[in-house]
């Protein structure tokens, strides 16, 4: 009997859904209070281009910044007429990671804002990067790695990628640190990336179980707060080490996303369809113009005319006969049935729209 019971138990475990595969770490579900990036922005100049820079007549701001830089270097260019083609004005962007210290390096992205054809081979000269508060937090400089190329001749041109945008790995040096005392936090808040009451409750339960205390509290569908003093942790950083790798099973809203341009359909596993009848057919209208030219006989009076000739056809395909979809049917089962009938992806999108309009599709329907 023991052997038979063991075999039955193993069989049930094999048939059971792998719930552990759906578990996700808390650090992948939430944003921790104060642990965030800060966007940086700057306006600079790229030099050393091979004749692919801005046309200064069409981009006067390039000439202005170039004049300012040369004057700061002690070169007086007032009243001079110079029209170089190897410079380009650019916008420089970067993300300042959390806890970045002075002297650390961050990646930057460089994008042309004038009529430059390519930034390939250019060098970004010293560009200050400002945050939303107007303060300078980093300075960028370095050689640009462009992501494309352009070849042109007298009669044609070919562009591959985006040659007017590039990157500088570790191209900015942090000069100012973000004023944030993370170690002084008394309460840490976890902001869910996808707010949901069930997921927030599961995060609260997982943290309290791991700490052995009721330190976590679900405030709403998108926030879980933790009283750091109650946890007994030495610091907020030590607390994050204990909770960020805890795993929970998130609960998400049922969603169907369709892309009409490519005919792509993406669905969630929780989508359900109520009892509904579905029928679909195609109507094709074909018009063919074959004009005929009529000419007079040789040496006869008259003129050449074009006689229109039109062939119009109206064809209706058999399509799908009226079929009943029982209640509780998952969307994956409906898609499998439509695929078996040979329904095209775009026709499938129209059917899903009609089911949603009838109130039988219980999910968020997003059309892109």
The main β sheet shows up as: 6 strands, antiparallel, barrel
Using only C-alpha atoms, the radius of gyration works out to: 33 Å
Please indicate the count of domains.
3
Spatial strand order of the main sheet: 3-4-5-9-7-6
Number of helices: 7
Residues in helices, as a percent range:
10-25%
Q: How many β-strand stretches?
A: 25
Beta-strand content bin: 35-45%
What is the straight-line distance between the termini? 58 Å
Low-confidence stretches: 4-21
Structural class: alpha+beta
* Overall shape: flat
Signal peptide: 1-21
Subunit structure: The basal body constitutes a major portion of the flagellar organelle and consists of four rings (L,P,S, and M) mounted on a central rod.
Protein name: Flagellar P-ring protein
Family: Belongs to the FlgI family.
